[in-house]
Design brief:
With about 250 residues, the protein is of the alpha/beta class. The chain has helices at about 40-45, 60-65, 90-95, 160-165, 190-200, 220-230; strands at about 1-5, 10, 20-25, 30-35, 50-55, 80-85, 110-115, 120, 125-130, 140-145, 145-150, 170-175, 205-210, 235-240, 245. The protein has a single domain (about 1-245), classed as Ribonuclease Z/Hydroxyacylglutathione hydrolase-like (Metallo-beta-lactamase, Chain A, 4-Layer Sandwich). The strands form two sheets. Strands 2, 8, 9, 10, 11, 12, 13 and 14 form an eight-stranded mixed β-sheet that branches. Strands 7-6-5-4-3-1-15 form a seven-stranded mixed β-sheet, with no helix packed on it.
């Protein structure tokens, strides 16, 4: 199983990367975490012989704008978009002219599956839990091939982020702020806060992603953030475009 970072930015694209999108390739599927503009690279890095499952955390534009490129993706075994049921209206509107191509016009079968918070056994074992963000957002804990991968994007540290991260082999965690902001109303994290979650919950490896495009705009500022995180949790790495992590 391998994890490929197809997009590592929050908010908007910069020379350092596209907006958030992470590919997990298992023996049976391409699992995609969020659909920022990094989704445009899926046809290059995803396995065309496997189905695609896209888990959406929430529908802020930087997490779904990549769905606009679905017409260029051809996966014969189909693409399934999984999202919280409360966002059905917004996604239905997204896939409507003049916003984007309707799902019926895609080059392969695309279906949409609505979920709520809870644990699921199909199409693979995963848990979805509400995170601490200004708009309802789901974090995910995937239990696949004897490994646990946790994805916490767009969140301040909270009870559920810790529960999802507990004893994970890999924690993929957002890093939107360069320094702690006591007046934050959005619900985002610093590198140090992500590291504290990893340290307290027995995580094996922490990958920082969803870097603030304005606060952490380039590789040097992002590396400085990782240095601060390593002081708390040594096995922390900077999420870089197209980096591959093998589990």
């Amino acid at each position: 199983m391998k994890v490929t970072l197809l997009g590592t930015n929050g908010w908007y694209d910069t020379p350092a990367g596209n907006t958030i999108c992470t590919l997990i390739e298992t023996s049976e599927a391409n699992i995609v975490l969020d659909a920022g503009f990094g989704l445009q690279h899926l046809d290059k890095y995803g396995n065309p012989d496997k189905p695609v499952y896209i888990l959406i955390s929430h529908v802020h534009i930087d997490h779904i704008c990549g769905l606009h490129v679905l017409p260029k993706l051809v996966f014969p075994k189909g693409i399934t978009i999984i999202h919280e049921d409360r966002y059905s209206k917004q996604l239905k509107g997204f896939f409507t002219h003049p916003m984007a191509s309707p799902l019926k016009d895609m080059k392969c079968k695309v279906k949409v599956v609505k979920i709520k918070e809870g644990k699921y056994k199909k199409p693979f074992t995963f848990t979805a839990s509400r995170l601490k963000h200004i708009d309802p957002t789901l974090g995910y804990r995937l239990e696949i091939e004897d490994k646990v991968i946790t994805y916490c994007c767009d969140t301040a540290p909270c009870k559920n982020s810790r529960l999802l991260a507990n004893n994970a082999d890999l924690l993929i965690h957002e890093c939107s702020y360069p320094i702690y902001n006591p007046k934050d109303i959005w619900g985002h994290s610093t590198a140090a806060e992500a590291a504290e979650v990893a340290s307290s919950e027995g995580v094996k490896k922490l990958v920082l992603t969803h870097f603030g495009a304005s606060g952490l705009p380039d590789t040097s500022s992002r590396q400085a953030a990782v240095v601060s995180a390593k002081k708390i949790f040594a096995n922390t790495v900077t999420g870089k475009m197209f980096e591959v992590i093998k589990l």
